[in-house]
Amino acid sequence: DTDIHRDGWGIAFYEGRGLRSFHDPNPASDSPIARFVSEYPVLTLNMIAHIRYGTQGKTELANVHPFQRELWG
């Protein structure tokens, strides 16, 4: 089970020269993507993760952090 932060989650990290990013609008406790990431051998110096407690907007993939935007795009 999860607490109030049940409105999605996301994680992003650098692996070598590439960026890996995983997002899911479902609770991390019920997510096959979270299970995959937890079993993946992450070797990085830079990582950010977020679990969402939605107070604005719908519970959908577009509202899950960490957000990604194209620079100057």
Fold and architecture overview:
The longest helix has 8 residues, at 32-39. Helix content is 11%, strand content 26%. Strands 2-1-3 form a three-stranded antiparallel beta sheet, covered by helices on one side. The model has no long low-confidence stretch (mean pLDDT 89). By secondary structure, the chain is an alpha+beta fold. It has one helix and three strands. The relative contact order is 0.31. The protein has one helix spanning 32-39, and strands at 9-15, 18-24, 47-51.
What are its keywords?
single chain, 73 residues, alpha+beta, 3 strands
Summed up, the helix count is: 1
Strand content: 25-35%
Task: Indicate the mean pLDDT.
Answer: 89
Distance between the termini: 39 Å
Helix content: 10-25%
Order of helices and strands: EEHE
Query: How are the strands of the biggest sheet laid out side by side?
Result: 2-1-3
Q: Give the radius of gyration.
A: 13 Å
Shape: flat
Given helix and strand content, the structural type is alpha+beta
Low-pLDDT stretches are none
The number of distinct β-strands equals 3
Biggest sheet, open or closed, and with what strands and sense? 3 strands, antiparallel
Q: Care to give the gist of this entry?
A:
With 73 residues, the protein is α+β, with helices and mostly antiparallel strands. The protein has one helix spanning 32-39; strands spanning 9-15, 18-24, 47-51.
